[in-house]
Amino acid sequence: MLPMIDPKCFVMHYVVSFDETNESMKHLNGTADITPKANSGSGLGSNLGANPGLGQARSSQPFVLSGQPNTAEAPLVFDSPHSWRSWPAGGTRSAAPDIALMSGWDAYVDELWAEALEGRAPLLAACFHRCYIDANRSRNDIDPALLSTPWPEPVDLSPAGQRGMGLIRRFALPGVPMYDAPLTVDDVMGRITRCYDPYHAQLAALVDAVHARFGMCVHIDCHSMKSKGNAMNEDSGAARPDMVVSDLEGQSADPFLVRWVAASLGSSGYRVQVNHPYRGGELVRRHGRPASGRHSIQIEINRALYMDEQRFVRHGGYGRLVRDLGRFIEQLCNGLTADLAPRLGAPFSSPKPQE
Ligand SMILES: [Zn+2]
Predict the structure, then answer these.
(1) Kind plus residue range of the DSSP H or E element containing 181
(2) Which one is the CATH code of 7-344: 3.20.20.240, 3.40.630.40, 3.40.50.2000, 3.40.50.300?
(3) Which listed residue, 60, 166, 219, 224, has the most CB atoms within 10 A of its CB?
């Protein structure tokens, strides 16, 4: 059974009054379970375990899912791997201050897209902090310097991993180590088997289900980015555009679709760049097979559009962004069920009747 969240629960979040800044800053280290809080009024990923009355139901799975493939309006799947802000209860405590861990959080991205989607397509969201284990890195992107003993499986450290941002973070921010002692192999292996592998398996199942029903699938991998890169980023110090759409330089999605997505987002007035400074990560690499009608596109949204980056609270731009993303989704749904899909490489069929 998959944990489900009724999209209506997101509305509840805004009638619950609490100081987001205070709630964001306290209890990050060592207070939250990795288990998702299905049907929580706190929304996907905003659960600090400190909001009374929010987050009652629990599941043993490290993700939450809103929407289902068999009710999707169009061949779409969304995922948000970095929008969980809590550190797991019982997880090896990080030496980094909470404020540093918060900067790695794709704040409110799950809620942004869930509100924009209104249940029109499935949205998978991780319930583990991206600094704990990063679903958007290769399973082998492990820095041996983090470990007390050699890693028993192949190691393939990426350029990001060499800068401290691999599967398991070495640095929360430049010069801010994540841990003050080496991690055990068992610790890291546990993170993979409890969080990383199930997340990817669930996303693969969603993509498979949508592909089986529609004959194709467009997977949108949802992120946010700081308005300016830091010393751990390739574009250190540079101001970023409003959005970055990426497809591993044409490898994870049909280039026509990628241009269409960028143009659709740009039609709302946003400055959109393609494949720079982000090219796409492990999620689009794993789940994008454009020759088989499986298109994966990463979208990064500039946090300054919708939140105060210092205080980690939403500002007035949030509502406009939800509306604009909703319009984008509407255009995408209409396009994929009409004139857009036939222009992509794979054949498109009408949805099969629900069983
Ligand atoms: Zn992200």
Answers:
(1) none
(2) 3.40.630.40
(3) 219
Sequential pLDDT tens for the chain (355 residues): 333 333 333 322 222 222 333 333 333 443 344 333 333 333 333 333 332 222 222 345 799 999 999 889 899 999 999 999 989 888 899 999 999 999 999 999 999 999 999 999 999 999 999 999 999 999 999 999 999 999 999 999 999 999 999 999 999 998 999 999 999 999 999 999 999 999 999 999 999 999 999 999 999 999 999 998 776 676 677 788 999 999 999 999 999 999 999 999 999 999 999 999 999 999 999 999 999 999 999 999 999 999 999 999 999 999 999 999 999 999 999 998 887 777 776 545 555 555 4
Distance 276 CA to ligand 1 centre (A): 15
* Alpha-carbon distances of 19 from 23, 286, 308, 318, rounded to whole Å: 6, 38, 14, 17
- Domains of the chain, residue spans: 7-344
Ion ligand 1: protein residues whose beta carbon lies under 5 Å: 82, 106, 223
Q: How far is the CA of 117 from the centre of ligand 1 (A)?
A: 19
CA of 81 to the centre of ligand 1 (A): 7
Other beta carbons within 10 Å of 21 = 13
The HSE-up count of residue 310 (CA atoms within 13 Å, CB side) is: 0
316 alpha carbon – ligand 1 mean position (Å)? 22
Q: CA-CA distance, 109 to 14, in Å (whole number)?
A: 15
Task: Note the pTM of the prediction, 2 decimals.
Answer: 0.82
Q: How far is the CA of 303 from the centre of ligand 1 (A)?
A: 11
